[in-house]
């Protein structure tokens, strides 16, 4: 039964996660943290970090991680199959449709109208990762004393390194990890 639940939960994520892995993060959080309570919000933040650091699509990595945490290797296979199946079917159908109708203005209009929704979904995913990182309990309250100053400094430092100095994202992630490790060792 758990394998079917994993498959169906990640099938829903695969069906509705237009815009890539970052767009899928709010859907994954909703399914695995809120709906099924397979992992905690803290574990979800770790899941995002692991899924970004490992090679491959983020949604597939997340599905494999959650599936293995919940039901071992068979669970990982069920969850990964669920998240991949819709993409395989959609891409096949869309490639055929695009090839056949790419010159139509209606097709161009449809693609243009999807862009704002994808941007909004990615922005939502970013917030769902950023807020629990900057605020200990995930709620915005500077007065409650839950603001994580070190996390904020690392975030803004990484943002400057990526946007202003155009550093390699892998180097920025490694640098932030080293800074946190150094802080942990010194304090």
Strands, helices and their partners?
Blueprint: H1 2-16, H2 21-35, H3 41-53, H4 58-101, H5 105-134, H6 149-163, H7 169-186
Helix pairs in contact: 1-2, 1-4, 2-4, 2-5, 3-4, 6-7
Describe the overall structure:
- This protein has 187 residues and is mostly helical.
- The chain has two domains: 2-140, no CATH class; 148-187.
- The protein is 80% helix and 0% strand.
- Helix 1 (2-16) packs antiparallel against helix 2 (21-35).
Summarize the structure.
The chain is mainly alpha-helical. The chain has two domains: 2-140, no CATH class; 148-187.
Please describe the biggest sheet, giving its number of strands, its sense, and whether it closes into a barrel. none
* Strand residue percentage: under 5%
The number of helical elements comes to 7
Radius of gyration: 19 Å
Mean pLDDT reading: 90
How many domain regions? 2
Q: What structural class results from the helix and strand content?
A: mainly alpha
Can you give keywords for this protein?
mainly alpha; 187 residues; globular
């Amino acid at each position: 039964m758990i394998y079917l639940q994993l498959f169906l939960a990640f099938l829903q994520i695969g069906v509705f996660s237009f815009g890539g892995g970052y767009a899928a993060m709010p859907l994954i959080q909703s399914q695995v943290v809120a709906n099924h309570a397979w992992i905690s919000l803290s574990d979800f933040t770790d899941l995002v970090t692991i899924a970004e650091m490992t090679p491959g699509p983020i949604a597939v990595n997340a599905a494999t991680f959650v599936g293995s945490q919940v039901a071992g290797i068979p669970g990982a296979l069920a969850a990964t199959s669920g998240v991949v199946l819709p993409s395989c079917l959609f891409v096949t159908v869309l490639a055929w449709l695009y090839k056949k109708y790419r010159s139509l203005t209606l097709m161009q209009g449809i693609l243009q109208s999807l862009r704002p929704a994808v941007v909004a979904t990615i922005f939502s995913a970013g917030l769902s990762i950023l807020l629990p990182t900057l605020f200990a309990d995930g709620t915005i309250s500077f007065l409650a004393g839950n603001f994580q100053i070190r996390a904020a400094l690392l975030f803004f430092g990484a943002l400057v390194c990526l946007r202003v100095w155009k550093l390699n994202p892998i180097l920025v992630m490694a640098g932030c990890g080293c800074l946190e490790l150094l802080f942990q060792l010194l304090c």
